[in-house]
Amino acid sequence: MAPMGIRLSPLGVAVFCLLGVGVIYHLYAGVFSSRFAAFRQRRKVDLRDLLAVSVEAAVLGGKEVKTVRDENGLNEKSKGKTREGASEPLTMGDLQSHRKMFNLLKNTFPEITVNSEEHDNMVDKATWSRDIPADIQDKIEGGREVPTESITVWIDPLDATQEYTESLVKYVTTMVCVAVDGKPVIGVIHQPFTGFTAWGFVGQGSNMRPRSSYSGSHPKVIVSRSHSGQVKGYVHSAFGNSTVVMEAGGAGYKVLSLLEMPSGSADSVDQADVYIHITFIKKWDICAGAALLNALGGQMTTLKGEDIDYSGTPVNKGGLVASVGVDHKAILEKLPNWDPDKH
Fold first, then answer.
1. Is this model's pTM higher than 0.90 or not?
2. 145-147 and 151-159 as β-strands: parallel, antiparallel, unpaired?
3. What pLDDT, on a 0 to 100 scale, did the predictor assign at position 17?
4. In terms of DSSP bridges, do strands 44-46 and 145-147 run parallel, antiparallel, or are they unpaired?
5. Using an 8 Å Cβ cutoff, are 273 and 259 in contact?
6. How far apart are CA 306 and CA 134, in angstroms?
7. Out of 13, 42, 142, 285, which could bridge 251 as a Cys pair, Cβ 3.0 to 4.6 Å?
8. Alpha-carbon dihedral sign for residues 85, 115, 119, 166
9. What whole-number distance in Å separates Cα of residue 255 and Cα of residue 121?
10. Backbone angles phi, psi at 179, to 5 degrees
11. Cα-based angle 277, 185, 203 (whole degrees, multiple of 5)
12. Is the pLDDT of residue 20 over 80?
C-alpha cells in the first residue's frame, strides 16, 4: 500500500508561525527594549556632562601647550598667511593640544561634531575621567539632554599662537565651545600659564561675573595686535580720538579682559570695556567667548548687530563687537559702516 501524503494547512502554518514569533518576542522583549533604550540614550547628551568634559579637555590641552613652551620644543612652521598678510604659525604646542582635546571629546561622545583649528590623524586614547568639578555640580543641574545631531563643538587648541612663539604667554588660552542648533551654549576658556579656567553655561550659570562698572560712552576698546592700525582708525572714528585702544593677542584673552578676574589671576589680564574686531575671524576663536558672555548677560554680535551662527562654515565674515555691562545697541549705533569683505 503506497504511503499516504501529508498536506499541511496554510492556515495552520500561519498560526504556528505567529505563535513562534509571539514566544520569541516574549522571551527577548526585555533585551530588545533595553537595546533600543540604550540606542536612544546614546543619541542624546547631558549638557552638564559636556561642560565637564569640555573643561577637562581645555585643561588637558593647556598642559601640553605649557610643556612644549617650557621645554622650548615649538618646532614652528607656517600654515600660510591671513587675509591681512600676517603669517599663521603652527607649533608642536598647537598639535599636541589638538590631539588631546579633540580625541578626548570624540572618544567620550563619538556622535557629536567637533571642529578644531588644527587637523591631525594621530589617535589618542584619552577618555573622560567622569569627574564633574565641584563648582559645576554646585551651579549646574544635570538632566538637560539634547540630541547629538543638534550639537557642534568648536575647539581652539592654542589661541594666540603668534604670541606663544614670542613668549607673550599671558595672551595664550585653550578653548572649547558647545553650540546647540547654532547658538553658543557652553564656553570654556583656560589659561595654561596661570592654570585658571573660566566657564559659562547660558541660562544655567558661570564661575565668572562682570565687573562692577564699565564705560559705554568713552570705552576702553581692546583689539587685535595683528591689524591694530586699521582698527584704531575705525574705533577713533566711532568714539573719538581720545579713546584708549588696547592691543592684545588672542580672542579668548580679549573676552576675559571684559570680565572680573579672580584675585589670583587679575594681574594676568588687562581691563577693557568693549572688544571689537573688523575683519574675518574663525568660529573656534570666538564661540567660547560668545557663550561665556551670553551666560553673563553680555553679547557678541557682528558689526551690524547680527547674531553669529555657530554651525556650518568656520568663517565669520561680519567682524564682531563684544560687550557686557554696557548698552550693546548704543555701542553698535556709534560704529561707522564697514564691510569686512572689502578689507
1. no
2. unpaired
3. 63
4. antiparallel
5. no
6. 36
7. 285
8. positive
9. 31
10. -110, 140
11. 115
12. no
